[in-house]
Each structure stands twice: as structure tokens, then as C-alpha cells.
Amino acid sequence: MNRRWIRGLTLKLLYPLFMLIGSFSKNKKEDLQRFIIALNNRLVRAERPKSKRILLLLPHCLQINECNIRLTHNIYNCERCGKCEIRDLIQIADENHLNLFVATGGSLARRIVTEVKPEAIVAVACENDLSSGIADTYPLPILGIPNERPFGPCVNTQVDLEKVKEAIEFFSKE
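Given the sequence above, the corresponding C-alpha cells read:
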């Protein structure tokens, strides 16, 4: 059976069903979103897509909230002070010749995907934004990496840089 077809079935039928079930419990909903992201990642890996045009899409909440510069219009305005992981992510994107953008939410993320027209996406976000974005952009291959939220949602979040590097390497490896 075609793996892309299975991924489509998962994202277009199972995901909405899970969100309906999850609407009765916030904790259950996040668990189901995490499951969909992990399942999608496994199915994308099984498809083994390779790409030269990779988009690295980040949430604005990776930027520390004390920063005076807003990066949503141009991430390269970052002063690279090292107080958050944006500096490292810019370096990773530059080393791998990736398109790199920060989005404030799902609508902007979808617009970026439409304008950039990537062949593959490495996306970092919370489970809610990741799972809905993965479903919305099917059949594009996306590896989703949930962010870490030591200070709660939407503020000073973090990401495992090794997971980002590994996802990029997966798509670009010949």
C-alpha cells in the first residue's frame, strides 16, 4: 500500500476524528496531537522523500520575550546574542542552505509555505499548531518537532537542536 496514501488517510480522516474526541479533554487532545505528529513523522520517514528545497519553519515563541527586535518579518534581524536558540537555528539554516522563517501562527505559516513552495518542511511548534499545519499542507512531507515549554505555552519556548539537524539531514541526504 502506498505510504503517502496512508499518511493522507491519517491526516484527513483520523486527525479530525481525534480532534473531535480530544475536544472533551485538553490533556487528551494534546496526547492525540502528539500521536498524530509521531505517526506522520514515521510515515514521512518511510516514504524517504529527498529534497533540495527545505523550509525550516519556526514559531515566534522561540525568541525570548525580553528581546527588543521582532523577528516575524525577517529572522535575519536577530542580533545573535545567544539568549535564545534563534542564533543557532539561523546558523543551521545557513549551513544547510535552507529557507528559514518565523511564523506567529497557522495562517502566516500557511502563507509562507504557499510563497516559498518547499519540497519538504522541518517545522517546530506546539502540538496544536504542528498537527493542524501538517494536516493542512498534506501531501507535502513535513517532519514535526514539538517545542519544549519550560515557561508555559507561547513564551520563551525551546527546541532540541539535534532533532532539527537530524530532520534536515534526513531530507537532504542523498
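The chain has one domain: 51-172. Try to locate this feature in the C-alpha cell string yourself.
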